[in-house]
Design goal:
The structure is a single chain. With 257 residues, the protein is an alpha+beta fold. It folds into two domains: 52 residues; 199 residues, no CATH class. The protein has six helices and twelve strands. The strands form three sheets. Strands 3, 4, 7, 8, 9, 10, 11 and 12 form an eight-stranded mixed β-sheet that branches. Strands 1-2 form a two-stranded antiparallel sheet. It has a two-stranded antiparallel sheet with strand order 5-6. It starts with 5 loop residues before the first helix and ends with a strand.
């Protein structure tokens, strides 16, 4: 019995060569994709652990007179103050360490409030526990001195507050604060690079009032509202929200311990 004809053997040989070529291309494409993911991960590590989270301690206290002069009490995403993202909506006047004040309502200090503690393994643990680091924002060109977050939150959704030391008053430390709520995750641009970022709720008054409720439920902290900031109406379109990402009645919650 005669074997396969020459055209048949040729077709089989070509099919075998095509399979070998496809496997090689697939393997190379997989390695290329893996390399790109590795490069992306290294860039994220550099941005979050070197550029952002390895900064030194904050500078001297913000002068309250400076905030009063501008009349807006606005927190920005950059030191130059070009992108306004949240208002100052809390004033904390206390003789206690802020960590003790917030521990009373079950909130913990953000890891960035403890210089030199953030590293990759700790970052993984924070994600598993639903308490990822709080990114920096700026008041009068200065990043926050410390931040605290509710331990009942999750990776994507959490309540937190950033604090800036203003100075002292009759032996008590005075902090300006910006309370807000992260309502989800999205891809944003930071340092000209796409990174996963939290999406903040525009209703900052709800965050401020929620903080008051937490203190009233669990402590005897004295609280009052001060009309210090400017009222900001709700944006009527998505385009307007890009320019004005929050709305507020302008009241600032003052907490005294």
């Amino acid at each position: 019995m005669l074997g396969p004809s020459v055209p048949t053997r040729l077709r089989r040989l070509l099919a075998k060569e095509r399979r070998v070529w496809l496997r090689r291309v697939t393997r190379h494409a997989f390695l290329a994709a893996l390399l790109l993911l590795l490069v992306y991960a290294l860039l994220l590590y550099f941005l979050f652990f070197v550029v952002v989270f390895r900064l030194g301690p904050a500078a001297s206290p913000v002068a309250f007179a400076t905030l009063a002069r501008n009349g807006s009490f606005v927190v920005t995403a950059d030191p130059a103050g070009l992108r306004r993202v949240q208002p100052v909506n809390v004033l904390l006047v206390t003789r206690e360490p802020p960590a003790a004040v917030f521990a009373a309502i079950g909130w913990a200090p953000d890891v960035l409030s403890i210089p030199g503690t953030l590293h990759l393994r700790l970052f993984e643990d924070l994600l598993e526990n639903g308490t990822p680091p709080v990114s920096d924002l700026y008041l009068d060109g200065r990043r926050e001195d410390m931040a605290f977050q509710d331990l009942t939150g999750s990776v994507a959704r959490r309540q937190h507050v950033r604090l800036w030391l203003l100075g002292t008053l009759n032996g008590s430390a005075v902090y300006a604060g910006s309370a807000s709520y992260d309502e989800g995750l999205s891809i944003g641009i930071r340092y000209h690079f796409p990174v996963p970022l939290h999406r903040t709720s525009p209703d900052v008054d709800a965050s401020r009032d929620g903080l008051l409720a937490a203190f009233r439920n669990r402590t005897s902290v004295a609280a009052s509202y001060l009309a210090l900031a400017s009222e900001v109406p709700r944006a009527t379109s998505e385009e307007a929200r890009e320019e004005q990402p929050y709305f507020t009645d302008g009241r600032v919650l003052m907490l005294e311990t």
